[in-house]
Amino acid sequence: MKDLGTENLAGGEGVQLLGLLSFYLEQEQRFQPREKGLSLIEATPENDNTLCSRLRNAKVEDLRSLANFFGSCTETFVLAVNILDRFLALMKVKPKHLSCIGVCCFLLAAGIVEEECNIPCVHDVIRISQCKCTASDIKRMEKIISEKLHYELEATTALNFLHLYHTIVLCHTSERKDILSLDKLEAQLKACHCRLVFSKAKPSILALCLLNLEVETLKSVELLETLLHVKKHSKINDTEFFYWRELVSKCLAEYSSPECCKPDLKKLVWIVSRRTAQNLHNSYYSVPELPTIPEGGCLDESESEDSCEDMSCGEESLSSSPPCDQECTFFFDFKVAQTLCFPS
């Protein structure tokens, strides 16, 4: 196995990869949440007036759902979590403000990462998240978050390291290029981000732990040797590495267990009050005038139901004008849910 030194990577691409790795390593500490602030949140008991780790973790789950709902990329979610944790580790936040802060972190991250055409509308995010704040509230809170973080919102995250490590490993292996699923690794990273403790880990270490555990399941000696060289080049000591590797392993084991609820890819049922339903834009519950016509012949009953996206129930509920204390149910044909799905 060749060393990852520059002299063995004179082919241009290797030099660029190592240069980028060195840059990420220099930047990672700058964008890490303050450990003292995170520890304070962890130590806070649950009550109505203080922010605890359970509320933070629940908010990150909401961010993941928002990212899935609007089709945002993993980078948007990871950056939103980074912005959220950096802000929470600096400021004393009351639980009642957490929803507004979470939405702002998502919008700030989307504005940095996503193409302009893919950035969600503020009003749409407010409606879907049901954060009970106005567009003006969002604008003011975005200003506060940006100022407290000195307008340094674009950060070096564990996802940056994960993608880079993945590229380096594949450049130095004779194995099939599809042997390491980046989608699966990203899903596992999302699982870790849903727990506050992993915000204390250096992004370089967290990413390497995920990749190391996945390579071990593949039982590839060549890939493992490459990772050892990456670990050495990143100057990651064994004590830190094995400490976080154990925590990551436990986290992934819990997410993979039968006790952990996972989405079954059925249609997501969104239940809202009548008042909320009346405030929704028409496009959220409109039904296409004509169902999709298949090319190969007659439309059976099951295909007919799917073609209308199961949204007729929502229309009936609206037209029947239920009492205020009843709820209207809307069905959306989404392949996402509140829980994590590991790619097969």
Automatic annotation (TrEMBL):
SMART domains: CYCLIN
GO cellular component terms, A-Z: cytoplasm
Entry keyword annotation includes Lipoprotein: no
Keyword tags: Cell cycle, Cell division, Cyclin, Cytoplasm, Mitosis
Pfam families tied to this protein: Cyclin_N
Domain Cyclin-like: from-to ranges: 61-147
Keyword Transferase: no
Recorded superkingdom: Eukaryota
Record's subcellular location: Cytoplasm
GO biological process: cell division; regulation of cell cycle
InterPro entries on file: Cyclin, Cyclin-like_dom, Cyclin-like_sf, Cyclin_N
Primary localization class, coarse: cytoplasm
Function summary: May play a role in growth regulation and in negative regulation of cell cycle progression.
Family: Belongs to the cyclin family. Cyclin G subfamily.
Name this protein carries in UniProt: Cyclin-G2
Species this protein is from: Dipodomys ordii
Gene: Ccng2
